[in-house]
Model the fold of this input.
Amino acid sequence: MKKILTIGRYFKSKFGQRVRKIPISLEGFTCPNIDGSVAKGGCIYCKNESFSPSIAKITPLNSTAITMNFKMTQNPLLEQQIKSLKEQFQWHSQFHKDKFEIRKYMVYFQSYTNTYAPFDTLKRLYEEAIILPNVVGMSIGTRVDCIEDRVLDLLEKYVKDGKEIWLEYGIQSVYDKTLKITNRGHLTEGMEELFVKTRQRGVKLCAHLIYGLPNESPQMMIHSLQTILKWGIDGLKIHPLYVVADTQLAKIYQAGNYTPIELEEYADLIVESMQLIPPDVVVQRVSAGAHDETLLAPKWCFDKNIQMRYLRDRLRAVGIEY
Done:
């Protein structure tokens, strides 16, 4: 039976023990298609707290009018951000140590675009994160249009110092027409070159894809996967598109102009995808959902445990162990 290299298996193989990614959400961070730099309103499906529950739990959402961007010369939030970073890390790491006896951690800058800020701010936050107790490295969620070469150079330095460094790029689709429909604020031009530059520095690259985006066929979704595999990746996250309240996608869905992907179709795509994945690519996620009343559709995205049981059964049926 083919065994998928999950993130848990990867960490256990590399570090000899379980490693937990600690999600961090910091005030002041945003995206260039939220603040109007490249688009307005954000991606049509985006409600960040539905993807990143730690925002609501630890960091007061929208508690400040100050947001990060590349042009800022001073950051009055920096000390507050560092304090929040340490508090969130302490809370999450202690929880996982007490409940699961996990003693090694990756700091995961998760919410919004975590390279979209002044370089000095990023350098300070990354360096504060990397020296937290028992931290083996960082994973940084970002966009392909928000990476400066000097940030890649900085991350390369951490790699040379022996740290595990990942950049997580929200690709979602390799079709420009889909990126336009979803209001991503960028197209595919330059993506492949960025993949190469990232990995040349020893920084590991995790690409995110969404299955079920408007007007995409199953063949298009699989082609997106085949394309990023050709470009070269170290890790992969796939999740279904789900509709949450107070988003543009919710309005489109409620008007009858979007039909969410069915569980059976999504499972078919995951089975086909896992058959294409090389053995050295770390599959970090194949499910997602929202566990509250904000989820409008599809209802099968309410419980990720149900998703995973079904997906694992479907994968085992073709000789794949996830």
About this structure: The domain at 2-321 is CATH 3.20.20.70 (TIM Barrel). Confidence is low (pLDDT under 50) at residues 55-63. The chain has one domain: 2-321.
